[in-house]
Amino acid sequence: MAFRLIPADQRIVDSVKLFMDDPAPPGSSPVDGWPLGSGEIPIQFPPRVKSKNKSGNFQLKDEKGFYEPVAIWKGASGTQISVELKYVVTSNAQSVTPWTISRISDIVHNVMGYFYRNVNSFNKGAQLPLIQVRLYKIIPEVTTISKWRIESAQADYSDELIIDGKDIYPQVTTITLTMMMVTQIRPLKEKAKQRLDAPERAKKEWY
Hints:
Number of strands: 11
Largest sheet: 7 strands, antiparallel
Number of domains: 1
Strand order of the largest sheet: 2-1-7-8-11-6-3
């Protein structure tokens, strides 16, 4: 069941970038898979941005003489977005087109593997696990591409199953990423590669 996106949708897909900082190693390809939690996340259809939110942090304190607790301002939370990525098995293992059971399964495992990146090497100054995002006009624009951290990743599957040789897999997979924008990082080690100095005031691209 091969298909081709209409030009407008293909242009949208080509404009989107979701890239976990570590590049894929030489000789590997998106079809073959890559180390967990690294490389670019392939996009099959235009992603759906489900929500974008930001909130304030208040500390409530009971004070004598007040009818209600006094709210003490403690700054703002990071900008958070929820993005939905949809994948449909449209090819078999012998097909030239890439949306096979193996590829989509690899994408899910790779995204989930983000949470295991650099567990043993982080305290030695390894790079913090971040994801670079370029996604429509909804994402705040910075010089080139903004950095986020994945708060949660959820994969939902359709009831319909596809059989391809020995492989059995749901026909439709939906990955929902909840991400928080990274603005200021204080690494555990001074040698950590990701380090941002605190600015004097909040930047417009943070929100």
